[in-house]
Amino acid sequence: MKINKKLAKKTAKKFHFLAVFLFFSFHLRNHYVKYKKRKIFRQNELLRKCQMAYVVEKQSILKENLIFLIFLKFFRKNKGNSVLMSK
């Protein structure tokens, strides 16, 4: 069986190109997927930090409001005759 060398070379070049193309396409896709995962992770971290800051801020506001309400209750209960008012 006679092998056509030109055809064999052409076919080898096509397969080589295909192999290189597939390798780089998968390689780049892998990098892209890792990049997207990192980006989503960073966004989630930022969102989590913002939510935590919001919760802490809300807790501090609630604590201040509670202290203020207790303070008002103390004054209302004593109708101005508290130790602070007598000085």
Automatic annotation (TrEMBL):
Species: Bacillus weihaiensis
Domain of life per record: Bacteria
Protein name according to UniProt: Uncharacterized protein
